[in-house]
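re: the backbone from monday

yeah here it is again, tokenized this time
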């Protein structure tokens, strides 16, 4: 009992950065660090983690990109609005890069990350897996909406964001 207390006490001295590094190593991730962030690959997907404070993390992953000139960029923007409506903890957004004439799709999660969270390794894995789910949803909805618009010429509607048509 006393040894468990000492172990817990030592864990309480961890910062979120140290804790996430230990867990990522257990998940066999290679981690690169700089002063502000950690970069790693999990199941083939690249991630960036930026500790915001001693007990908060900001996790980013790039989902894809589209040319700024692509006629379907508005569809993608509406799909991201729908994803943001659908996912409680994950945010999807685009970042314009005029230099490469691209619009990058980024997913991010901000989370509390403290040693007291039960099964913290499983918790981190569930967060990371949410990025894979969102990516599949973005790609699937984007392709489905392009196909649907080609067939019907009807605009994409996002539940809760479109005005109701009046007769």
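seq for it, each position gets an aa:
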């Amino acid at each position: 009992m006393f040894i468990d207390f000492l172990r817990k006490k030592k864990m309480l001295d961890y910062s979120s950065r140290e804790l996430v590094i230990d867990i990522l190593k257990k998940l066999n991730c290679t981690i690169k660090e700089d002063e502000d962030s950690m970069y790693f690959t999990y199941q083939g997907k690249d991630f960036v983690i930026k500790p915001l404070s001693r007990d908060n993390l900001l996790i980013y992953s790039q989902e894809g990109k589209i040319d700024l000139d692509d006629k379907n960029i508005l569809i993608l923007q509406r799909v991201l609005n729908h994803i943001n409506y659908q996912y409680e903890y994950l945010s999807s957004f685009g970042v314009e890069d005029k230099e490469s004439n691209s619009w990058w799709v980024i997913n991010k999660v901000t989370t509390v990350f403290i040693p007291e969270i039960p099964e913290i390794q499983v918790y981190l894995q569930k967060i990371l897996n949410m990025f894979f789910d969102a990516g599949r949803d973005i790609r699937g909805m984007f392709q489905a909406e392009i196909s649907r618009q080609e067939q019907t010429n009807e605009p994409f509607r996002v539940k809760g964001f479109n005005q109701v048509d009046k007769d």
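The two ends are 71 Å apart (CA to CA). Strands lie at 31-33, 38-42, 45-53, 56-67, 90-97, 102-112.
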